[in-house]
Amino acid sequence: TGRAVGDLLLGLPSQLALTSYTVMDQGQDMQFYFIQDDFKATSKLTLNLGVRYEYATPPREKNNQFANFDPQTGTMIFAKDGDIFDRALIHPDLNNFAPRVGFAYSPLDSGRLVVRGGYGLFYGRTPAIMVGTAHSNNGINVQTLTFTGSAVPTYPNRFVTPPTGGAAAAPSIALFDPQFENPTLHQASIGVDRALTDDIAVGLSYLYVKGEDLPRSADINIGTPVDTPVAIQGDGTVTVRRYTTRPFAGFARIVQFQSSAESEYNGLTLEVNKRYSKNWQAKVAYTYSKVIDT
């Protein structure tokens, strides 16, 4: 009718977007083994030693409905029957050994002074939302067609095949780096506890945490930035850096999930603890810390 309100009342759409859906049958194998025990080295020294091994295959799809993008060749790679990489398109992470070591030492015969410390290596799992995003937006499972004007098909309707006349925009896809690894966390601590009275103790402890191979996303389909002046109303211009080109013109964003982020935490904690006696208890603590993410 040429009028938005009239089209609405008559049920005449001016634009229609059809988006397919995806149904997947995903699965992965996980195996975890560990051994750990406490050892009384002397009457004043106790050791805690152990090691853990973790193995989790990358997710696979029963009917091989996974795809990935190779930035070296600019082409899509599709899952197929074969080994784990052929089906998951991610190399399996096989070296996840995690040692554990800890100690507790009480140098005084009174037992009022204890020194504790330990180190452990831990492995995390890939967030489920990251897996779901990559596998449902990999360019073969979800597609969107936009129809305008006379090309708009009758609605409501069910389409066995995509109707003609639709325009398919360059898709944005999400995928995993083939070298993706499980997140790794190193944690070490040492502390001293001193009993001042039978029910009051003071403690000083240091905690160090180092995260490696942490997951993050990056758009790998951006070209060389261009310095572009942008006008500011009533106040001249400002120069901003814009990414205006796409090296792989057949796609919009290519979001790659990488295990390339790191973090580091250092924390020092002072604590005073009043154990329960005479009908009251209390704990006061102060932590000075610093964290860096890269």
Q: Which shape, going by the Cα principal axes?
A: elongated
Beta-strand segment tally = 17
Average pLDDT, rounded to a whole number, is 89
Q: What is the rounded Rg?
A: 29 Å
The percentage helix is under 10%
Question: What summary fits the major beta sheet?
Answer: 9 strands, mixed
Written as H for each helix and E for each strand, in order along the chain, the element string is HEEEEEEEHEEHEEEEEEEE
Structural class: mainly beta
Number of helices: 3
Low-confidence stretches: none
Q: Terminal Cα separation, in Å?
A: 56 Å
The proportion of residues in beta strands is over 45%
Keywords for this entry:
3 helices, nine-stranded mixed beta sheet, 294 residues
Give your account of this protein's structure.
This protein is mainly beta. It is built from 3 helices and 17 strands. Strands 3, 4, 8, 9, 11, 12, 13, 16 and 17 form a 9-stranded mixed β-sheet that branches. A two-stranded antiparallel ribbon has the order 1-10. Strand 6 and strand 7 form a beta hairpin. The radius of gyration is 29 Å and the shape is elongated. The two termini are 56 Å apart. The model has no long low-confidence stretch (mean pLDDT 89).
